[in-house]
Amino acid sequence: MKVKSATIFLLSLFIYTQLNAVQSKREFRGAWLHTVFQEQYLTQNTAQNKEYLKGQLDLLQEAGINAVIFQVRPSADAFYDSKIEAWSRFLTKDGRPPKPYWDPMAFMIEECHKRGMEMHAWLNPYRATTSANEKLPAGHIYHRHPERFVKYAKKLYFDPGIPENRKHIEAVVMDIVSRYDIDGIHFDDYFYPYPVKGAKFNDARSFAKYGQGMKLDDWRRHNVDILIKGLHKKIKEAKPWVRFGVSPFGIWRNKKSDTRGSDTGGLQNYDDLYADVLLWAKNGWVDYLMPQLYWTLENKVAPSGKLAYWWNDNSQGRHIYIGQDVERTMSAPDIKPSTLQSQLNAKVSLSRKLPEVQGNCWWPGYCVTDNLGGIADSLAYDIHSTIALPPSYPWLSDTPPHAPSKLKAKDGMLSWKSPSPHNHISDVTRFVIYQFDPGDDIDTGCADAIIAITGDRHYPIPEGTPEGTTFAVTALDRVNNESEAATITL
Description:
Helices cover 29% and strands 19% of the residues. It is an alpha/beta fold. The chain folds into 2 domains: 6-383, Alpha-Beta Barrel (TIM Barrel), CATH 3.20.20; 405-489, Immunoglobulin-like, CATH 2.60.40. An 8-stranded parallel beta barrel has the order 1-2-3-6-7-8-9-10, surrounded by 5 helices. Strands 14-13-16-17 form a 4-stranded antiparallel sheet, with no helix packed on it. The protein has a 3-stranded antiparallel sheet with strand order 11-12-15, with no helix packed on it. A hairpin with an 8-residue loop joins strand 16 and strand 17. Helix 3 (46-62) runs parallel beside helix 4 and helix 6 runs parallel beside helix 8 (216-238). The two termini are 44 Å apart.
């Protein structure tokens, strides 16, 4: 559904700011936890890292976050026990396994699911180094095949035009998909590298070999298209429920380059990063797009408010979640005549008014857990004051699972039965707990009634719950379809 913007843009934003936050029962509430350049993981021991990450997840859960985007491949290295690439230099030294041994991705999946949260494995596809003098560990693919890499602005990148590189990236992704119980594979905004003044991405050799008479720009886009299309196919063949999402730079194309583009200026996905993300959504190669609208609402070159409208109007039938920058959101005052000292309420209210936008994701998640500018408090007590289920994905499956059975209330504990997962899209993986006061209608469409989402088959009855209270428990499958409710009255 398209929403017209143009002349009423600023007035609309002001009106949205003044509205009470209308909270849906379903909303993507994500947070990125990056590992690149995060030295704490290297300086802490295994026990400290586990406690640190559990603490981060507890704080995110308190802020109402229901999906964690955890970076498991910062630059052709692994925050997990990879069979293909070395352990990350941001976790261990010289590519060696951590001691005592642990697998951060497996740990994060387990801890997220305990809390009823999704865990999306975040990979950077093409980046091989992050600094000019980085020493690659023994066994790195570069040592075997330096001809498959391009040095650009003092950093190394896989050449996207070489088929063997696509096969390598596909192997890395499918190793993760096959061995880990993730909810999604997530790519960020780095495809061909961001342009650096005076630097040239020297892929002339691969272009001469594989260009097939295409123009260079079209060929580069084609290379990325092939990767995205192929990964989507392989992921869905292996595990149809695993979402494939991309978080592109916030501008697809400017209107001056393409009449379909946004009324913006600056760098463009299509022309500068060779990422035609609208094509990927149109062809169903991705399940969600998470455009990084990190600017202020009224930024002159790239106003995030106008861009939110544009992405809503160009969703191509796939989910849109808006990537929000915590620091810029919390440090910029709202648009006048509003007197609010941040743009938090306005940005979230706008996202909730756009029919094709299903939520937001916060960058970086560490700023949420640090409560930068009071964001965690605002999320917990206002914007996310009710618990939300993540969106469902009807193009993957729209068949609800069976309701929990044998719901009981005994010794201060609710308990129920449900079949164990058996590696199918219909597997029940989490449960939603509703609480209704005596005399209330039993309405599981009401977000206010949700008291928990859990991966357990039991839940403690809150202390002081009066007689006559009714609890309802529903089941969620792997793509968040919800069952009918089992109910019990105390």
